[in-house]
Structures are given as structure tokens and as C-alpha cells.
Design brief:
heterodimer, A: 229 residues, mainly alpha, B: 265 residues, alpha/beta, six-stranded mixed β-sheet, four-stranded antiparallel β-sheet, 12 strands, 36% helix, globular
Chain lengths: 229, 265
């Protein structure tokens, strides 16, 4: 796995590929879990905000808090101050929870814009046919909302992947943490950081491509000549 | 033509209906009756309250005063001892809309579902029919509106007139006894209006009770049993189209009709 790049000696990394790939795998795992948690929290918060009048103020406080402070501070609070109030989490769990709650605030806003973009008349039509709200949500609103928010949701997921580098400060052995370990052990800086940047770029690009493919699928019905049968 | 003579009680009865949007009173004491199998057209200038009146019948708008009764049942409110009433629960509201089909100016089809799925959705989720039953009925309904070859098409691939006919099929599939139409042809290109009106004419001929908000005086003159002319949230004049259109009693209706004739000459 030795690449020839002028001025760089990629050979120093030869012994470290298992460490790098292990870090990559941890990043993928934790980011996947964080994104799923963030979307679930974001959807729950937006549904409560829009449909349960008494829950709305609380939902707004949640969004304001997690959007209004740096992820770094939130992670420190959760990991180092958490035990003081009885929340003791291992680094990975704290990382997923921190990123998930942080992302959830943004996903809630993204989902809100998606729901609000669905023409009211479609919901009136469902009401006139006697459809209960839950059924209307599942059959009419969610599928369209999902298609509408896919680009911003992918964007937010990309931001989360890059933000996951801060998990290194609470000792999670993810990509950035493992890379800094290599920097400390080999006294090389450029080579490990270059690999680090390329690996994040690959993750993000892969996610974008998957998002684009999914979007094409979810918006099939808007494509002239599309048929179901 | 004169279905009142059959002595049936009105299927829709509206009394002293008032509706405000903020400080703006858009319905100011409307009385209206529709008898079984009647076709009633609501006409009037824009802003006259005719669409709001239609939307009060199925409580898409909650009215403030007066009452709307469909088959004798008070719409939108539950009667509590004596003269008090409170807003109907969502479940009660759903149940009371059972007899009413609604067709909108903007069709309001669900764009991510095929024509057939648009029609079968409520048959399955509300009427509890099996997928197979719903699809057979849905296909029959789409056939009835002349779209037997469009079952699998998404709304984006249908013309406006075809979309509106899918919307009519979707409402009809629920077997309502009354159909409400809110300017069903106003969003259509002129050459697509005919197919939709044709479907509406045949519905009327089958004896469907219909309330139609329309700007199409030709349709009203041809199909309506009675026409209500609204202006400023009040019924100015009401009667069979032959009377209303040929010898309008009120100067306001006269002015409205001559304006329409000028534009459509």
C-alpha cells in the first residue's frame, strides 16, 4: 500500500493500516448510529412540536439549545459533567448520544420545512375522505416529506460525519483519534493527515452518491413517463 | 326538474350561517337548502363567500354561528343539553363527512401515488376493504370517468382534466350521497374543461345530489336545478336558472351576468 507522492514518505504508514482502518470502521459505525438517532429524535421533536400544542415550547427549547451551543461544549458536558448528575456513559455511547441529540435539532428543522412544503389541499382531501391523522401522516405526508428533505438531510449527515472528529477529545478511538496517535508515534504529520482527509472525503462522497440514488428513486413519480405498473 | 315537489326533506339545510376570518365576516347569515338529487350551483363574484359556504358544509371551515345539517345531522358541532354546543371531536367529524364527497379546484391528488392508488387508499384505510376489492372498485370508478387506461399513471403524467377526473373518481369510490364541487374547472385549460363537465353531467343525470361552486354560467344554466347568487356573504337571489339568468330581479345579479356575458361573448 505504498504510494509515491513527491515530498511525502507514505511508507511510514505501512505498519499502521490496521489502526487506520479500525478507526475508519469506528467512525462509520458511530456516524451511522448518530445519524439514525438524530433523524429519529428530529422526527419525534417535529411531530410533537407541530401536533401536540403543550409539547411545542419544550421542543423549541430543545432545538434552540442544541443549535445554539458548540458540539464540543455539548460533548464535554455530557461526558465529563454527566457523571455528576448520574449519567455515566462510555465514550462511544456518549459520542453517539451527543452527535445524535445535536443533529436531531437540525433534522427537526429540516423535517419541519419538508412537512410545511406539502400543499394543505392534499391533507384536506384526506380529511374529506375520512382518513385518520395517523394514516394521513404515514401514507400522504411522510413519503413526500422524505423525498423533499433528502438533499438537506444528506447535507446535515455530511456535517455530522465531519463533526464526528470531535469525538477524539472524549477518547473515542475513531479515525481522527487514531490518526493523531500515529502522528505522535511516527513524528510524521503530513502523511497521516493526508490519509485522514482522503478517508473523510471518501465517506462523504459515498454518502452523497447514495443520497442522490435514493432521491432519484423517491421522486420517480415526478418524472414524466414514470409508471407503477 | 322540480324535485321539491317530491316532498322529501332537504338533504342539506343551512340556517343563518355566519363565518368570520378575523375581523372579516365572509358569510353573513346564509340560508340554503338542497333536496335529494338536486343540482345546486353557487355563483357570484370572487370574494362573495361561495367557496367558504361550500367548505362549511363539510366543515373544512368551522362556522361561527347558525347551523349546517346534512341528513339532519349537525355538522361540526356536538349538541350538548339544550341550546349549548361544542366543537365536534375529530372522530365525530370524520364520521359526519361520510355522506359527502369533495372535489377541489386544485384536484389535490397525492402526487406520489398512481391514479389507482389515489382512489383505493381510503377504500382500504377508511372503508376497510381488502386490497383486491378496493382495486376492482377503484378500476371501475376510473373507468366510469373515462380513465380505464390510466390506472398506473402518476398525477404528474396526467393532464389537468384527467387529474380532476381521478379526483372525482376518488370521491365517488367512497359512495357519498352528496358531491361538493369547488370550482372544479377553474384551474383547467379551456380545451380540458369539457371532459370534466361531461362526467359531472352524467353524475347529475344519475340523480347524484350536487352542490357546485362555479364560474361557468353555461354549466349552471344547463345542469342546475336551482342557482344561488351570492354577493358580500349573503344570498342575493335564488331560483331555477331559467328565471335567474333570463329575468334577474336584483340589479347586482343583472350586472354580474352582463359582465360575464361580455367576457365570454
Amino acid at each position: 500500500m505504498t504510494m509515491a507522492i513527491p515530498g511525502l514518505d507514505m511508507g511510514v504508514l505501512d505498519a499502521y493500516w490496521p489502526v487506520i482502518l479500525g478507526g475508519l470502521w469506528t467512525t462509520v459505525r458511530l456516524c451511522g448510529a448518530s445519524i439514525l438517532l438524530g433523524m429519529a429524535v428530529g422526527l419525534a421533536v417535529e411531530l410533537l412540536r407541530a401536533r401536540v400544542r403543550r409539547a411545542a415550547p419544550l421542543c423549541r427549547v430543545y432545538v434552540e439549545f442544541f443549535r445554539g451551543s458548540p458540539i464540543l461544549i455539548q460533548l464535554f458536558l455530557l461526558y465529563y459533567a454527566g457523571p455528576g448528575v448520574g449519567i455515566t456513559l462510555d465514550p462511544e455511547a456518549a459520542g453517539v448520544m451527543g452527535l445524535g441529540l445535536y443533529g436531531g435539532a437540525y433534522f427537526a428543522e429540516i423535517f419541519r420545512s419538508g412537512f410545511e412544503a406539502i400543499p394543505r389541499g392534499q391533507l384536506e382531501a384526506a380529511a374529506c375522505l375520512g382518513m385518520p391523522p395517523l394514516r394521513t401522516l404515514l401514507r400522504v405526508e411522510l413519503p413526500q416529506m422524505a423525498a423533499l428533505v433528502l438533499p438537506p438531510a444528506v447535507n446535515q449527515s455530511i456535517i455530522l460525519i465531519k463533526d464526528s472528529a470531535v469525538l477524539s477529545i472524549i477518547t473515542v478511538p475513531e479515525l481522527t483519534k487514531q490518526t493523531s496517535k500515529i502522528i505522535n508515534e511516527t513524528f510524521t504529520i503530513a502523511e497521516p493527515l493526508l490519509v485522514l482527509a482522503v478517508l473523510y472525503w471518501l465517506l462523504v462522497t459515498g454518502l452523497s452518491a447514495a443520497g442522490a440514488a435514493l432521491e432519484a428513486r423517491l421522486t420517480r413519480h415526478l418524472n414524466p413517463s414514470g409508471k407503477t405498473s | 326538474m322540480n324535485k321539491k315537489a317530491a316532498n322529501l326533506p332537504p338533504i342539506i339545510e343551512i340556517r343563518k350561517l355566519r363565518k368570520r376570518f378575523g375581523g372579516n365576516e365572509v358569510l353573513r347569515g346564509i340560508d340554503l337548502r338542497v333536496y335529494p338529487s338536486e343540482v345546486v350551483c353557487l355563483i357570484g363574484p370572487s370574494g362573495s363567500g361561495k367557496s367558504t359556504l361550500l367548505r362549511c358544509i363539510n366543515v373544512l371551515e368551522t362556522y361561527d354561528e347558525g347551523e349546517v345539517r346534512v341528513n339532519g345531522e349537525l355538522m361540526g358541532y356536538e349538541e350538548v343539553s339544550g341550546r349549548d354546543r361544542r366543537r365536534a371531536s375529530p372522530a365525530r367529524l370524520r364520521e359526519s363527512r361520510r355522506d359527502l364527497g369533495m372535489v377541489f379546484q386544485q384536484f389535490n391528488l397525492w402526487p406520489h401515488m398512481s391514479a389507482l392508488d389515489n382512489v383505493t387508499e381510503a377504500l382500504v384505510s377508511v372503508r376497510g376493504k381488502s386490497r383486491a376489492e378496493a382495486e376492482a372498485l377503484g378500476a371501475a370508478m376510473l373507468d366510469k370517468v373515462g380513465l380505464a387506461d390510466k390506472l398506473g399513471s402518476y398525477p404528474a403524467n396526467l393532464s389537468g382534466g384527467q387529474q380532476q377526473r381521478v379526483a372525482i373518481a376518488r370521491a365517488l369510490a367512497m359512495e357519498p350521497s352528496i358531491m361538493l364541487f369547488d370550482e372544479p374547472t377553474s384551474a383547467l385549460d379551456p380545451e380540458l374543461v369539457g371532459d370534466v363537465l361531461e362526467v359531472m353531467r352524467s353524475l347529475a343525470a344519475e340523480g347524484m345530489t350536487m352542490v357546485v361552486v362555479t364560474h361557468d354560467m353555461g354549466f349552471a344554466a344547463e345542469v342546475a336545478d336551482r342557482v344561488y347568487f351570492l354577493e358580500g356573504g349573503q344570498v342575493v337571489e335564488e331560483g331555477p336558472p331559467a328565471e335567474l339568468f333570463n329575468v334577474p330581479k336584483s340589479p347586482r345579479l343583472g350586472a354580474f351576468l352582463s359582465g360575464w356575458n361580455r367576457r365570454n361573448a
